[in-house]
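Handout for the seminar on molecular recognition.
Each group receives one record of this type.
Step one: identify the two inputs.
Step two: read the structure output and locate the region that could contact zinc ion.
Step three: write two sentences on what you found, then compare them with the reference statements printed after the record.
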Amino acid sequence: MPLICVHVKEPALKQAVIDEIRRRDTSAEIEDHENSELNDKAVPTTFWIDTEISFWDVEQIAGVTDAILAHDVCSCGSGERKDELVDARGIFCCYYCDACEKEKRAKYRTEVLEDSDYQCDEQIETDY
Ligand SMILES: [Zn+2]
């Protein structure tokens, strides 16, 4: 079953959304990271669900602002949708989201992200 990350508007709506999903799919498995020691960045408006319901249908349930398939979720633990960080030459660097963008960008030299003429660390040997 596809694993989906669900965002709700307010923490108070979470239980109602979970109840509605369980009503439509009795075999749905809810993983609430709020109670998990694994995820220190757990957000009270976010939970994970393993369900047969498509994520479009999950998005239609009142109170859901966003439903994201697990493979589109950033690995930082925020539960936000990931995006590709590419350098000034268009080379893929890593994935980031709104929550970790600063942190991820800080790992690269500013010129690598902004100047397409940046120097590589590996110089090509030209003299024979
Ligand atoms: Zn992130």
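Reference statements: Helices lie at 14-24, 55-60, 101-105, 110-114. The pocket of zinc ion is lined by residues 74, 76, 78, 80, 96-97, 99-100 (CB under 6 Å).
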